[in-house]
Amino acid sequence: MPSSDIAARTLDQVVQLAASITGVMRDGLEELDLTEPLANLLWILDPEAPPLPLRKLALRLHCDPSNVSQLSVQLEDKGLGQRRPHPEDGRVRTLVLTERGIEVRTQLLDLVAARSPLAVLGDAEQERLQAMLTKALAAPRRLPRLPSAD
Amino acid sequence: MPSSDIAARTLDQVVQLAASITGVMRDGLEELDLTEPLANLLWILDPEAPPLPLRKLALRLHCDPSNVSQLSVQLEDKGLGQRRPHPEDGRVRTLVLTERGIEVRTQLLDLVAARSPLAVLGDAEQERLQAMLTKALAAPRRLPRLPSAD
DNA sequence: ACTTTTACTTGAGAAACTCATGTAATGTCT
DNA sequence: AGACATTACATGAGTTTCTCAAGTAAAAGT
Which pLDDT tens digit goes with each residue over A52-80? Predict the structure, then answer.
């Protein structure tokens, strides 16, 4: 049982899990009055972290910056977010959640957490899982044959 | 440290990992001459498993069956797949990979496996990871407040 | 000061997806 | 067996989402 088979199987399971999670999210979008791209944006907008420039958000979402611009407008139109000028750099805008935005984001996260397959794992298991994921995510991302994007 | 925080953090890490994996995949699409939706379809087309009806593929991809129809046409145009009538049910069509399709799929999987963050985990760790993921994915999916779709 | 670079916005266009409709095969009911 | 309903897929139109190109404004480099 070669090592690459193990890797392939692990990868496949993670992808399956991810698909399941996005499925759960999609099923909850209507009751939150969100679209999928808006929900994805909301997801990475941690109210407790320092606000991020739109450019950083684009990197995180693996999409074009212009796309984030358009999504930001939608978030503002819904009263969930607000673009703020960066205090030090006049070119930069950061995206901040409004009170209502924080509320909806919490609902979104709670909903997905409650219905995701991960919910069946106990606290101890989740912590072991976290340990492994942390290790993987912290890795210095050495991409073979590619300039370091991301 | 309430249990829901642990769950939220685990979930966030899985989502981050998934984003990273799709990012890796996207970066490799050009060199494989694939689009993202085609790659996703290719991914779930295991040549060793019995061929699946288009409808099942749509369920797996969380999308409309008509979408799978269109993607199947693209796969055929590229010479990577072929739709076959179901031997017993005249309405059903299954999608099978061609020789070249299997080849490209292998390249895709290998590429993602090599560059994914999971690559930094050792075999033993991956097996422990698999154990947990298997448990989660096998769970009978009790969706709160929703008829059992999926 | 002048040029280059960076961050965002805007608008046009392409890609991907959904929905409605149509067709054919299967299942069901009497 | 015949009539009706259901299921699986195909097709075309329309919507949504995304990318790309061009433009503006601020900052950095020379």
Answer: 999 999 999 999 999 999 999 999 999 99
CATH placement of domain B36-134: 1.10.10.10
Q: Is the pLDDT of residue B143 over 70?
A: no
Q: Which residue has the tokens 């796309």?
A: A67
- B126 vs A10, A116, A120: nearest CB: A10
Question: Rounded to whole angstroms, how far apart are CA atoms B107 and B104?
Answer: 5
Encoded tokens for A130: 């976290």
Query: Touching check for B131 and chain A: CB below 8 Å?
Result: no
CATH architecture of the domain formed by A10-116: Orthogonal Bundle (1.10)
In window 39-58 of A, residues with CB < 7 A from nucleic chain C are: 53-55, 58
Distance CA A147, CA B14 (A): 25
> pTM of the predicted model, to two decimals?
0.88
Protein footprint on strand D: which nucleotides are under 7 Å from a CB? 7-12, 16-22, 25-28
In chain A, what are the domain boundaries?
Answer: 10-116
